[in-house]
């Protein structure tokens, strides 16, 4: 007759190892999760190979940290990073990708980025609120007002008492005021829920939650392909409000200035490459990753995407237009001037 120990050993011989040692399996799973989380939290462009923690911290501190949105204006910078243009230029760049303009602004004010994608209205809003900054370059910043197909809005005055998704005190809010003025409506005649995340704003328009929304490319093209209607575009209109905005310290420091100029140079090189067609497989992958473009629409959106525009110097007249608009809303502090807002670092 077998002893209890012999019976136990016989039974265990038929039990898989992972069931005999569940605590080891759990420990391994937790370790793997910790490694994956650590990798996911690493900023784009960072590298930890062969460096001590102190050396990595020094390298991170020396790199240029840029907060961008997944929109048409920022895509050349993403493409330049993906294609190694910034590496070739000798720029150590860390890109923080954020879904909303309010988040890029917060990244600047809280010291997470030296350079961000924003607009002149938001820059004035931040500068008068004791955040030292400078607008160093202007982008095209075209927006399109897309109306939901179920709403049957054909004229601007039909937006009365409709919901138009915007980001508050930003370029989208500015153009919604311009439209109400043009249509001879009171600015309070349209409801403006603040939907900062552009992806969510697009989906809310397409599923009929919003009556209309101001969208940049390629989200505007996606909304049109999903059956909605183009009502208005800012293309070729002034002012040009979108811009790359830097902390004043970065904009005036010799080393950071050089980095920002290299960033803008790489951006323009990517614009040239993209306008020649770019590398299609890379574009498809990036559109799916950055814009969360549906697989069924990628090819159509790539064909519909407008040409990219090189960086330009920000203009004082555009800054004054943003300032006067904010004043009309009572959002400018007494004595504030936009004279120190611009510091062009374009070539």
The appropriate CATH architecture of the largest domain is 3-Layer(aba) Sandwich
Overall tally of structural domains? 3
Radius of gyration: 25 Å
Query: How would you classify the quaternary structure?
Result: single chain
Largest sheet properties = 5 strands, mixed
CATH homology superfamily of the largest domain: Periplasmic binding protein-like II
* Termini gap: 92 Å
Q: Strand sequence of the main sheet, in spatial order?
A: 2-1-3-9-4
Q: What is the CATH third-level topology name of the largest domain?
A: D-Maltodextrin-Binding Protein, domain 2
Helix fraction by DSSP (H/I, runs of at least 4): 40-55%
In N-to-C order, the SSE pattern is HHHHEHHEHEHEEEHHEHEEHHHHH
Per CATH, the class of the largest domain reads Alpha Beta
Structure commentary:
The chain has a 5-stranded mixed beta sheet, sandwiched between helices. The longest helix has 22 residues, at 254-275. The chain is α/β, with parallel strands linked by helices and 347 residues long. Helix content is 46%, strand content 12%. The protein has 16 helices and 9 strands. Helix 8 packs across helix 16 and helix 10 packs parallel to helix 11 (219-225). It has helices at residues 4-12, 17-20, 22-41, 53-62, 75-82, 85-89, 101-109, 120-127, 171-182, 198-206, 219-225, 248-252, 254-275, 280-291, 298-304, 316-328; strands at residues 64-68, 93-97, 115-119, 133-138, 144-147, 164-165, 212-215, 229-233, 242-247. The model is unreliable at 35-42 (pLDDT under 50). The chain has 3 domains: 4-33, no CATH class; 64-140 and 240-340, D-Maltodextrin-Binding Protein, domain 2 (3-Layer(aba) Sandwich); 144-233, 3-Layer(aba) Sandwich (D-Maltodextrin-Binding Protein, domain 2).
